[in-house]
Design brief:
The chain has one domain: Globins (Globin-like). The protein is 60% helix and 3% strand. It is built from 6 helices and 2 strands, in the order ααααααββ. Helix 1 packs across helix 3, helix 1 crosses helix 5 and helix 5 runs antiparallel to helix 6. InterPro entries: Globin-like_sf, Globin/Proto.
């Protein structure tokens, strides 16, 4: 089979093949199949997303973070790794080597961004407040900083 082109048609074929694997996957399939009511519509949306990401077409008009947050109770960070494994397999099989690497790199960044949006909590971290100068007006160059 000839490698798919990095164009709208090639990305649509890639998305279709990839999500067929996701739907059949033991870990990812149940989550995706429960979350998606209309697969043809969703696949079109995902093809538009990848077209916007890789071809800067501007076709995608959705909001991925809120869409994924609706399913946060079923998504674990480890599932992103499985998603990326399937993505790597599919892109390597269907795309030219250069396109596969570019798609994998972009997917890894997207997965990282989604994980940060979904699982990173600022209140879980110890964030130091701004340093304040010592109120001692007699020392023009105070050496101590109050927390």
């Amino acid at each position: 089979m000839a490698a798919l082109e990095m164009d709208d048609e090639g990305l649509k074929a890639l998305v279709d093949a990839f999500y067929a694997r996701v739907r059949a996957d033991g870990a990812l399939g149940p989550i995706f199949n429960d979350a998606i009511a209309d697969w043809p519509e969703h696949l079109d949306k995902l093809a538009a997303f990848w077209s916007s990401v890789m071809l800067t077409s501007g076709r995608y008009k959705g909001q991925p973070v809120p869409a994924h947050m609706k399913h946060k109770d079923r998504i674990a960070p480890a599932l992103f790794g499985r998603w990326l494994e399937l993505w790597a397999q599919t892109t390597e099989e269907l795309m030219t080597p250069g396109a596969a690497v570019a798609l994998q790199d972009r997917a890894a960044r997207i997965a990282q961004s989604l994980q940060l949006a979904m699982f990173f909590r600022l209140d879980d971290q110890t964030i130091p407040g701004p340093a304040r100068r010592n109120a001692d007006a007699t020392d023009p160059h105070p050496r101590s900083m109050l927390p």
